[in-house]
Amino acid sequence: MAERYEILVLNQISPVGLKRFPAETYSVTKDATRPDAILVRSNDMHGLRIAASVKAIGRAGAGTNNIPVPAMTRRGVPVFNAPGANANAVKELVLAGMLMAARNLVPAIQFVGALSGDDAAVAQRIEDEKKRFAGVELPGHTLGVVGLGKIGSLVADAAIRLGMNVLGYDPDITVDAAWSLPSLVKKAHALDEVLRGSHFVTLHVPLTEATRGLLNARNLAHVRAGTILVNFSRDGIVDEAAVLEALNAHRLKAYVTDFPTAALAGHPGVLGLPHLGASTREAEDNSAVMIVDQVRDCLEHGNIRNAVNFPDVVMQREAPYRVAIANANVPNMLGQISTAMARAGLNIHNMMNKSKGEMAYTLVDVDSRVPPEVIETIRRIEGVLAIRYLPLEG
Questions:
Q1: Total domains in the fold of the chain
Q2: Is residue 144 domain-shared with residue 268, that is, in the same domain?
Q3: 3 state SS for the chain
Q4: Has residue 290 got a pLDDT over 50?
Q5: What pLDDT was estimated at residue 394?
Q6: Average pLDDT over residues 323-344
Q7: Same domain, 165 and 190
Q8: Which residue range is the domain that position 297 belongs to?
Q9: What's the whole-model pTM score?
């Protein structure tokens, strides 16, 4: 009999994704008491009691700062996200934000909305004051892209197609990201180089301790006068007080952000949006599909893809009996696992082990049933955080 899984859903998740959980083997509810996995979007899980039964957490989006990732790592629980699923939605909003600021569209729309009188009076006011809203075109201007992952690369490509010059900066760029980057992107060697050389700057880095306050009073002093700063990444990446000071000093012409605060909301140089970056039907569907598929693959086969705290480990099934082990990245772990299985007379058909920082993950396929006592022996090995037995048959 196939194992049944309980999925706890903390936020509204697209039905397009949830339908990918087979009804005969999955129960998807908002009140599961012993869930095998949790799906979440924006709900803050830091104060949530996460049941011991949880084997995986899926974030239907990119950022995972609302999830207690270190605590889950210590428990051997992978935390999945959906990188790139909302990339096109964010790219489009970045371009819209740049155009709104470059063409002064928000104050222009507000001006028209406040007009009164008959047609002749309205037409005269428009003719008299339209020059106040004259802007600039994008071609020929330089866009600085900070962070060259999936979203940053799409933004860079779109900007080039619009005739812009692109200056890219990402000290942590991955090989895959580098391959997908348009060849016309000029590489910057420092953030200050981007700020000095760009008319527009857009941010596409995750919020970490290393990126918190990435744009601050010191480096905002180097921006070209009249720069438009765009932030659809995370609010903590910029020092809000430093941005306001740069706006007041007219070093920044505008700050376009998806993360308005009380201090920012009333400033005439701020174009604040209510966190719309991934708020499209397509992005929500894409994120849900991606995260459901990853959580299912983990629960059913132990495969790990796009976990922020685990290495990617995906191994095709070649034998019906699989053991998945999350462990600290310490010496002789594979030797101890292999020895435990050999002593029980088990033949290892295939094995894959990868590490990510202090974390490691191992998949082992064997040719015969694994007795419970062998699972328990491995569980007791120092450094093993979690172990699961995943036979194809019940």
A1: 3
A2: yes
A3: CCCCEEEEECCCCCHHHHCCCCCCCEEEECCCCCCCEEEECCCCCCCCCCCCCCCEEEECCCCCCCCCHHHHHHHCCCEECCCCCCHHHHHHHHHHHHHHHHCCHHHHHHHHHCCCCCHHHHHHHHHHHHHHHCCCCCCCCEEEEECCCHHHHHHHHHHHHCCCEEEEECCCCCHHHHHHCCCCCEECCCHHHHHHHCCEEEECCCCCCCCCCCECHHHHCCCCCCEEEEECCCHHHECHHHHHHHHHCCCEEEEEECCCCHHHHCCCCEEECCCCCCCCHHHHHHHHHHHHHHHHHHHHHCCECCECCCCCECCCCCCCEEEEEEEECCCCHHHHHHHHHHHCCCCEEEEEEEEECCEEEEEEEECCCCCHHHHHHHHCCCCEEEEEECCCCC
A4: yes
A5: 56
A6: 95
A7: yes
A8: 1-85+281-310
A9: 0.81
